[in-house]
Design a protein that fits this description.
Shape: globular
Radius of gyration: 39 Å
Order of helices and strands: HHHHHHHHHHHHHH
Distance between the termini: 137 Å
Number of strands: 0
Helix content: 55-70%
Largest sheet: none
Number of helices: 14
Amino acid sequence: MDGNNNQFNQQPQNQPQNEYTQYGYRQQSYQQPNYQQPGYGQQGYQQNGYAQNGYPQPGFPQNGYVQPVYPQYGYGMPQAPYFDQKSAKRAFSNIGLSYFLFWVCALVATIAVAFFMQLFCPDATDIYLVRILSSILPMYLIGAPLCWILMKRVPAEAPARNKWTAGQIIGGYIVGYSLMYVGSIAGSYIGAIIESYFPDAQASTNSVQELVLTGEMWVNIIVMVMVGPVVEELLFRKLLCDRLKPYGDWVTILVTGMMFGVFHGNLTQGIYAFMFGAFLAYVYLRTGNIFITIGYHITANFMGSVLPLLVLNSADVDGFEEMLETGDVNVLGEFISENAEAFLLYGGYIFLVLGLMITGIIILIVTLARGHAKFEPGRIQIPSGKKFSTVIVNVGMILFLLSGLFEILMSTFG
């Protein structure tokens, strides 16, 4: 039996071994199959170019996969950029202070000019041109250059230049004119309510409009149509919007409209100036073209100061009102027949104004409903809970708003 056991235990030297290993270890002098552990490269064998958990294995070629890169702020997670409220309030304060000093210098210069004119040539104050120049030239020649110099302290960011088609430009003006006209109606209505409680107030009176309608046409063309719109667009669109643009479109539009309305110093005029100024700010942000807003402003002032004067001079509106008060239909009909061409022109002007207002409102509603109006966020985003305290609650803006409120109250109750 021992012999038989030895016979079974002994294996021939030249007998081939099966290609298996015991317990995963390679047997000495036996051939090992080229098997590879999953995910781990055996020494001496080629490793597939895959990485475990996104990290490359040392010493082996990797496929060209790139991990996404996220902005890190110290904790490995994306975070909102830091808002420096102190710097933002300083910028808005500088803006408000610049326009406050602009108002103060213009007011002081206007009072000084009126004083010397009353002292040396009192009869000149009855001349329309002299009255206009004495109130506007100090503001444009002294206040505006000072404001421009002071505003240079605030960093500027001009909007990108985008070309509008002729249809967009015309449609934009119609919308802007309709907003201005709606604002004028709203201002007159609010003023009438104030006057019902305070009979001595002049809240619904537009002093500029009354001055224009009783003035000389060529003076209106030079001052109201040519000089005024250019200076105001440079001050309130180019100079102001470029400083507000880093804070987003909404901040730029609302602040520009507010400051433009307060600047006019009249309740009725201030309301429609707010709406028209806000729209001009939007147009400037979308086009980056100051010449478009200047063209809008010139056209609006022409239709508000020169065209009404032409119509009223041709039609005897005062005589028509007197005929209405008589209540005599025959006399009224005879008066209209004698002035048929003039009243036809007057009716055409009224039809033009109402048509532009209705068309502009329709265009605005359709544009907003289709989502064609764009409002872009700014490079510096003010948190929602800090907008008012950042934009308004600062020394410069408070001084500017108080000065404007003082002028509005003086023009209303003074």
